[in-house]
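Running this now, will post back.
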Amino acid sequence: MAGFGSADSDPEVREKIVRIYGLDRPLHEQYLKWLGNIVTLDFGVSFQDGRSVSKKIMERLPATILLNVCSLFFIFLIAVPAGVYSAAKPGSFFDRAVTILVFAGFSVPAYWLALIFMDYFGVRLGILPISGLVSSGWDYFSPARKVADVAWHLILPVFISAFTGLASLSRYVRAEMKEVLSMDFITAARARGVGEGDVIWKHAFRNALLPLATLTGLMLPSIIGGGVIFETIFSWPGVGRLMYQAVMARDYPLIMGNGVIVAALTLAGNFIADVSYAYIDPRIRYK
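Update: finished.
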């Protein structure tokens, strides 16, 4: 900030900056002060414009949450039934078709698929927006048109995110369901004359939810933290793109603030997954 030690930097300016940021204090005092600020979500000010890091992140948070919640909704809506049905009908045409789509989702890079769709549907056909959250003049739209415009901008990023994200989830569900369906209590339920639908959804599916709960908990950081590459490609005004801009500008307070939030959300996601185990499987509840 003061010229990084160059010959023309003003020593008085450097001393003032050192005092402002408390860099003249012992290291343990600096750390304790920083830790106290983190507890109150005070991540300091941005090097770029002097604004509060917390406020800059909060401004971008709604766009990131909207994009990722919509993506996760379609991922679960498609991946869970597809994985369950593939496990119930292994080797069927549906199972083979889902397997092909899953391998495609694993293999195709999301950024490459996004560029292909942006070029075809946005540039060549001109039927879908390829960047941003809203159109120009959005402030003058009617409420109904505002909602429609946001939904229109969500189509491409949500589709790309859902297509590449449902691959792993559907495979996890299929593998776990296939293992549960081979257990003795499933055979006993079928022997008692329980309907196949009840066997799958009431008996097997609940026992296969533990890995699903783990994956759901680990998805929490992505809902808030956003995707750096994904949001940058679509010029999405979210936290991920803010992180990219902070890295390019060497805005260290903003980088650290976003990093701390993602780390805290990772811990929170693991904690939520552990707590949910007790509700899914009564056998692991503590007395």
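The domain at 25-284 is CATH 1.10.3720.10 (MetI-like fold). More later if anyone needs it.
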